[in-house]
Design a protein that fits this description.
binds FE2/S2 (inorganic) cluster; Rossmann fold; 18 strands; binds flavin-adenine dinucleotide; Elongation Factor Tu (Ef-tu), domain 3; alpha/beta; seven-stranded antiparallel beta sheet; 2 domains; globular; seven-stranded mixed beta sheet
């Protein structure tokens, strides 16, 4: 059952991307909550802020995310969770690689790493309007670099190319990645070549969010309970990874 919470803050983060803050505590970095928008739907959202005042960062793609993005301070939403297995943040040097709204669960990881010299960040998006959390990341890391596909901010190119460059320049003990699945597929390949262990956060259609209904299963693993964060050795054999996902009607979509 959802806890009803009152939205206290709404911040426009970028083009079609909005952060909602509300009083809700608990959760570890990389975990997600099921968000109920009364009269519309219930959808999974990563926690972009944790602590007493939690936050989610929503990219508008369809009906539920549009309804969430239109909410204002004082409006109510239902929250269930937190759920899932989040990031396993190792000791040593970490590189966070975020594509677009994929920066949301990575910000929770950055907030949990108390030493700005041991975590670097590569943020990428299609264009400057979709780069989020750059300033917030700069407050948590000594080396934050940005790329855009069209060159409107930072270096021109993909965030995986940027991350590969960083892995050639410095040594890391782990890479944490979140973003479009095709990006994660290339990131995994880049990490394999650089011999750096990698974790990625995956998205699949979710109903219960708590490991019971089976709607998020990929090759026997429940994304909601066994993930959403998976280790490289777990995803490398997933038949759907970087290729397709199940739709609400039971068919399959390309990622
Ligand atoms: C664990 C987890 C964490 C997530 N965290 C975030 C987050 O922090 N911020 C955020 O904006 N979104 C996040 N998502 C994705 C979000 O849940 C979906 O975008 C949302 O459910 C779409 O609902 P809708 O009704 O707006 O769109 P729909 O009408 O359901 O879909 C609109 C379009 O988006 C596509 N779509 C639907 N679901 C997904 C999905 N999971 N991934 C990619 N494309 C999808 C559909 O194929 C369709 O083309 C997360 C998903 C999961 C599983
Ligand atoms: S959403 Fe029900 S098992 Fe994952």
């Amino acid at each position: 059952m959802s806890n009803m919470v009152t939205i206290t803050d709404v911040v426009t983060q970028g083009k079609g991307i909005t952060t909602l803050r509300f009083p809700f505590s608990g959760g570890s970095p990389g975990q997600f909550v099921m968000v109920w928008i009364p009269g519309i739907d219930e959808i999974p959202m990563s926690m972009s802020y944790q602590g007493d005042m939690a936050g989610i960062t929503v990219k508008e793609v369809g009906e539920a995310t549009a309804a969430l993005s239109a909410l204002r301070p004082g409006d109510l939403i239902g929250i269930r969770g937190p759920y899932g297995r989040g990031w396993d943040i190792p000791p040593g040097r970490v590189l966070c690689v975020g594509g677009g709204v994929g920066m949301a669960p990575l910000m929770a990881a950055l907030d949990a790493i108390d030493d700005p010299s041991r975590v670097d960040v590569a943020i990428g998006a299609r264009n400057i309007g979709e780069i989020i959390f750059e300033e917030r990341a700069r407050g948590r890391s000594d080396d934050v670099r940005v790329s855009t596909d069209d060159g409107t901010h930072g270096v021109k190119g993909t965030v995986v190319a940027l991350a590969s460059q960083m892995m050639r320049e410095k040594s890391y003990d782990a890479v944490l990645g979140c973003g479009p699945e095709i990006m994660l597929r290339f990131l995994l390949q880049a990490c394999k070549e650089a011999e750096v262990p990698c974790q990625v956060s995956l998205e699949r259609l979710m109903k219960c969010g708590s490991g019971l209904c089976g709607s998020c299963v990929v090759d026997g693993l429940r994304v909601c309970a066994d993930g959403p964060v998976f280790f490289d050795h777990e995803v490398k054999n997933m038949s759907e990874f970087g290729r397709c996902r199940r739709t609400a009607s039971g068919g399959k979509d390309r990622v």
